[in-house]
Amino acid sequence: MADDGLGIGMVLDQSYAEELLRTPRSVDWLEVTPQRWQARGGRQRWLLDACAERWPMVPHCTSLSIAGTDPLDDALLDEVNGFVRRLRAPWWSDHAAFCRADGRWLGELLPPPFSVEAVAHVAARVSEAEQRVGVPMLLENIAWSAAMPGSTMTEPDFLLALLHAAGCGILLDLATVSANAENHGYDARALIDQLPVDRLMQIHIGGRVRQGGRVWPTHAAPVTDEVWDLYAHTLARAGRLVATCVESGATQRGLDKALDDVDRARSLARWALLSRTEATLMAS
């Protein structure tokens, strides 16, 4: 399979890091959240170092608030810079969202207005963050319940405009794509088909849950059939194995069940890319 050099990986968490180090099962790389590991010594530091010796790692953040109006968090950017250098990571990521306003944490990731003005604002902050960290930043799509006041664009159009204006790559969360498409009435495959494949640098795959009449992505459940179908479609369109991180809840479900999803992702990727190759040959 043609790929970006990483393959199929999973999230690293302290709750199962020791078990992961002992497993003979195949994992290609790990995604690590700097805030959960930074400034930790002793055994936690040893676990991170031991995992970094065995697997490539990529930092993934959850609190930069790139779409917010507060100044970017200098301490967080310094942490990410340190992780990138230490891990020799090819990129890092955070969400196309805001989680802080007037210096206060809001407790969740919220979407910016889907507007031309928000596109320009976020794009400028992505450029600033990339300069501070020193490697490309990927933006991840988020689940949302209602569009913010001032929105003049659909979410798909906003994401496309943002990728173009920021010149950055995307971390595409397929459980989120699936949930948003169902909740807000658009075609998940159509959104994926509009994305510039050269900007698709990483994929998250995880579960879904129904709550309050809506569908929400979750790390606490196995990957659903809807998400597996989108994964196969996404890889077939990309024509390569995009770096894939399984988020199906090793902490909640147990490491072996999460590794089962890693194995399934690897098998499905082979099938999707082989089917695309065969279809291309038949068409020619």
Task: Give your account of this protein's structure.
The chain is an alpha/beta fold. Helix content is 45%, strand content 19%. The chain contains ten helices and twelve strands. It has helices at residues 17-22, 42-54, 74-87, 116-133, 155-166, 174-184, 188-194, 225-238, 250-253, 255-283; strands at residues 8-11, 30-32, 57-59, 92-95, 98-101, 104-110, 137-140, 169-173, 200-205, 207-211, 214-218, 243-246. The strands form three sheets. The chain has an eight-stranded parallel sheet with strand order 3-2-1-12-9-8-7-4. Strands 5-6 form a two-stranded antiparallel sheet. Strand 2 (30-32), helix 2 and strand 3 (57-59) form a beta-alpha-beta unit. It is globular, with a radius of gyration of 18 Å. The two termini are 20 Å apart. 43% of the residues are buried. The model has no long low-confidence stretch (mean pLDDT 92).
Strand portion: 15-25%
H/E topology pattern: EHEHEHEEEHEHEHHEEEHEHH
What is the β-strand count?
Answer: 12
Number of helices: 10
From the alpha carbons, calculate the radius of gyration and give it in angstroms.
Answer: 18 Å
Globally, the shape reads globular
The main sheet comes to: 8 strands, parallel
**Adjacency order of strands in the biggest sheet:** 3-2-1-12-9-8-7-4
Distance between the termini: 20 Å
